[in-house]
Amino acid sequence: MIGVARAARVLRGGRPDRPRLRRATSGHLRGDLPSTVVPAAHTMDLDVATLTDFLGSCAPFDALEPTELARIAAHAVVERYEAGDVVLDAFDARVAELFVVWEGRVDVWINTDRLTELPDKTEGTGGLFGYVAALTGAALRPRAVAVGRVVVVRLPADLVAPVFASRRGARFLAQEVWSTNQRAVGVPAYTLVDDLVAHAPLVVDAGASIADAALRMAQADLGYAAVRIAPGRFGLVTDASIRDVVAAALPTTAPVAEIMDPAPPMVPLGASANEALIRVLERAADVVLVTDRAGGLCGAVGPMDFVVSSTTAGAALHEQLRRATTVTELEHRYRGVPQLIGDLMARGLASSRAITVHSALVDTLVRRAIQLVVAAHPDLDVDSFTWLSLGSNGRREAVLSSDIDAAVSFANGMSADEIASYRPAFLEITQVLERAGLNHDRHGVSPVNPEFARTHRQWEAAARGWLSRPTEDDAVIKTCLLVDGRPIHGDLTLPEVARVFGDLRLHPSTMQVLLAISVDRPRTPRGRWRRKQFDLKRQALLPIANIARWAALSAGSPALQTQERLRAAASSRMLSAEDADTLDDVFEIVQRMRLRSQLEQFRSGETPSDTLRLRDLSSIEVSVLDEAIGEITAIQRRMANLARFVPDLRG
């Protein structure tokens, strides 16, 4: 972030170039409320612009305009505390400030009867605490203690209170309150990646030989080496990449830069262990690099490091799936995934992140199933094809009810008979996934179907045919499937197919059909007494996914996840920033309800589905869903009207 970079320069003693904050002796504008803030050892000076940039990167302040942020920043106090200092104790008296962590970490307790136990959570850079007591004016909670040296920004509650009345602020409060209520006793809700870094990093120059890098890795007893590319930029070489060199009999005298991953997964200090784990799972990576705010390398963590973290139980299961030696073991291991996702939700992980973890574990299951099944067929080559996850799996939005939509793309030159010889193995893979608990697509979107098993060139030709004749057969449906496609095994770039759909904006007829799908409204009566159940997917999630896909394609964005697509397309001519934000919020809310419902169905022994019965919902939940569907319908109507009266906006 720009603000973080500027702040780093100031903290290192850089010469300020803007008017600076005045020192303050009171944490609030009025002296009518006593504060239990322990006096800091040092009050620090930061310029208003730097602090404004920083607050603008933190939720829920990121919803404010720069002028409003600057007004708040002008009244902020920046303080430094040493290890063990009590930054805030809001159990004994009322407070009028809330706090944002600028640098370092604070342990936070929210229950007075558990102050001798582990903290309820740990807040790192950008973390907010003290807002409940500050906003209510009551002696409620929390107690916050510095973990090492920490710098915090103290903000007057009466200035920031309006932030929490916004949609973004209300959403922040709802998520935090729910997480607090669901938090497991005696278990810290957030462990930071800082806690998992056990060794100093190993860094080699890009010109070092592969043999030299391997030797230094062995001497350091590390499974990786970071490769210095430029200041703040690193590549990565691992045991696995060096083994590939040896297996291929390639020269180990070549520069290590030739085999490194030039863009490895990275997280900054202060990131939650869950966030780092998600990066590992998404990339099927051996390690994730950890950097400080200035871009310096601090170390790396791998899947086994996460096992010690109470908040990343998914790491152990991920490793078990990766290392399963038989399909029976693989199926057995995966059946524990729904319980894991439920545990993560109970510990306070946001539903969107829990779904990302679930999708990553599905990817791991599919990859290992491919490896085990194909290995049992010596006449087949596991490297001859690319497996694409389609639909919600491709968008990393798979839940317990999601079907496994998939396709394969073979190397050019494979004959029809050679492709057909793989079909029995693909059927076996599908059966393994079904026995593990996944749903097979009933519409035949599977590599077992010859339509979804082609060579790269055949896929390219088929895609061009769909684009030129979007109204024929299932052309637009197949286009949507491939646009949402994500390779998870084999050639992870798949350039032929990507190039075709990268030019989708140049095909106005297809874009118009995609727009028509986006604004098509399910004919479902609104009002709680006019229906007996909700279909969350058909009535809410699918319309939003369709809008997001069309809008992102129109904006030229390669994003796959629905919420990322909405953010990428916000403020476009067809989708205003306000409408994109509304759809983002609705998608998050409905996905949360969907996942919770499916976890309850799973625990009850029922088959998870997208349908909620009216009698199982509270009045508030019914109202929320009714309002959500109304918001979607209104946005679809506005888009349809724009397309009708301003034809050049259609694509």
Low-confidence stretches: 1-40, 181-190
Describe the global form: globular
Percent of sequence in beta strands: 15-25%
Subunit arrangement of the protein: single chain
Distance N to C terminus = 33 Å
Explain what the structure shows:
Residues 60-147 form the Cyclic nucleotide-binding domain. Pfam families: DUF294, DUF294_C. Helix 1 packs across helix 2. Among the domains are: 2-185, Jelly Rolls; 506-649, Four Helix Bundle (Hemerythrin (Met), subunit A), CATH 1.20.120. The longest helix is centred in the C-terminal third of the chain and has 27 residues, at 577-603. The protein has 651 residues and is α+β, with helices and mostly antiparallel strands. Helix content is 43%, strand content 15%. The strands form six sheets. Strands 1, 2, 3, 4, 5, 6 and 7 form a seven-stranded antiparallel β-sheet that branches. It is built from 24 helices and 21 strands.
Question: Which descriptors would you attach to this protein?
Answer:
651 residues; Four Helix Bundle (Hemerythrin (Met), subunit A); four-stranded mixed beta sheet; 43% helix; globular
Short account of what is shown:
With 651 residues, the chain is α+β, with helices and mostly antiparallel strands.
